[in-house]
């Protein structure tokens, strides 16, 4: 099944699919878009390293690798690197749909109740909350949404524009402080927990009240 046929078939099952021909393109996209599943197709000498990188960039996404000519040792290395499933070549689209639905159900159990409303450019909550966001604030929440239930280092949010890790940490601290002030003005409890000496994590709506 060619790439275009594969994508067209998944779209017929109402999956929203984006196609990338390089690891750099995928990683760049994950900075601004949350993913439910990442599918790698084809043999790749550095597959385990790429899988580990993708797992780090989007810990909440399912990762699937299909390499028709892969060996048992290569599949073991991929599994050790964090891939969820190694699929055989020649899978029918019905199998792909069932596999992705099953993986999605598993990840949905840990999914956050908050989401980004791109049309409104806001953080949307299950109770109808709408917190307007700047592009930088949206990028902050994308990173949290891509790592549900995980605490992210302060230095990991915006490393590119920082002069040092300390500068990156201060930048995100200032951003969160401004977000909290904005949320309070709109009577919204910001669902972000600060972990002292570490970083930030996104809380489910039911746990949004931050402890003293």
What do you see in this structure?
The chain has 212 residues and is an alpha/beta fold. It has 2 domains: 3-108, Response regulator (Rossmann fold, 3-Layer(aba) Sandwich); 115-207, Arc Repressor Mutant, subunit A. It has helices spanning 3-12, 23-30, 47-57, 72-81, 93-108, 135-145, 165-185; strands spanning 37-41, 62-66, 85-87, 115-117, 122-124, 130-132, 152-153, 192-195, 199-202. The strands form 3 sheets. The protein has a 3-stranded parallel beta sheet, with helices on both faces. Strand 2 (62-66), helix 4 (72-81) and strand 3 form a beta-alpha-beta unit. Helix 3 (47-57) runs parallel beside helix 4.
Keywords summarizing the entry:
212 residues; alpha/beta; Rossmann fold; Arc Repressor Mutant, subunit A; 2 domains; three-stranded parallel beta sheet; three-stranded antiparallel beta sheet; 9 strands; 41% helix; disordered C terminus
Determine and state the CATH class of the largest domain. Alpha Beta
Spatial shape? globular
Total strand segments: 9
Question: For the CA atoms, what is the radius of gyration?
Answer: 19 Å
Gross CATH architecture of the largest domain: 3-Layer(aba) Sandwich
Strand order, sheet with most strands: 1-2-3
CATH topology of the largest domain: Rossmann fold
> The biggest beta sheet, please?
3 strands, parallel
Strand content: 15-25%
Instruction: Report the uncertain regions.
Output: 206-212
The H-level CATH homologous superfamily of the largest domain, spelled out, is: Response regulator
What structural class do helix, strand and pairing data support?
alpha/beta
């Amino acid at each position: 099944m060619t790439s275009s046929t594969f994508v067209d078939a998944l779209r017929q099952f109402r999956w929203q699919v984006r196609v990338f021909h390089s690891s750099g393109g995928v990683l760049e996209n994950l900075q601004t878009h949350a993913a439910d599943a990442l599918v790698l197709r084809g043999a790749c000498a550095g597959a385990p390293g790429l899988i580990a990188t993708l797992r780090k960039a989007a810990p909440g996404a399912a990762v699937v690798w299909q390499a028709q000519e892969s060996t048992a040792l290569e599949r073991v290395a991929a599994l050790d690197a964090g891939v969820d499933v190694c699929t055989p070549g020649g899978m029918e689209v019905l199998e792909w749909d069932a596999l992705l639905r099953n993986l999605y159900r598993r990840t949905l159990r840990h999914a956050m109740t908050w989401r980004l409303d791109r049309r409104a450019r806001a953080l949307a909550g299950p109770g109808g909350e709408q917190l307007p966001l700047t592009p930088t604030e949206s990028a902050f929440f994308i990173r949290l949404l891509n790592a549900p239930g995980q605490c992210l280092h302060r230095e990991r949010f915006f490393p590119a524009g920082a002069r040092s890790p300390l500068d990156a940490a201060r930048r995100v601290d200032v951003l969160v402080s401004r977000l909290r002030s904005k949320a309070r003005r709109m009577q919204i409890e910001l669902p972000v927990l600060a972990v002292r000496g570490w970083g930030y994590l996104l809380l489910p709506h039911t746990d949004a009240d931050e402890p003293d």
